[in-house]
Design brief:
single chain
Length: 74
């Protein structure tokens, strides 16, 4: 700090602090948006997983049915 202009030094420090705070806010907002997208994608993946599980179960039932019909004809 210079003894000739302490107010200028204080103003400079406050400006630097404001710029750092703004930068931190922008980074936080960007991260929040990324996290929200990740959550949406995770929910979509869970939905798809449920659909695949249901289709797999239906396919297994169809295969079991066809195998039982084939076994009865042999």
């Amino acid at each position: 700090m210079t003894s000739t202009n302490p107010q200028r030094w204080t103003d400079d420090r406050l400006d630097a602090l404001a710029a750092s705070t703004q930068s931190l806010l922008e980074a936080t907002q960007a991260n929040t948006k990324s996290i929200e997208r990740m959550i949406e994608n995770q929910l979509a993946m869970q939905t798809l997983h449920g659909q695949v599980a249901e289709q797999t179960l239906q396919l297994k039932r169809a295969v079991d049915y066809l195998l039982s019909k084939d076994g009865g004809q042999s």
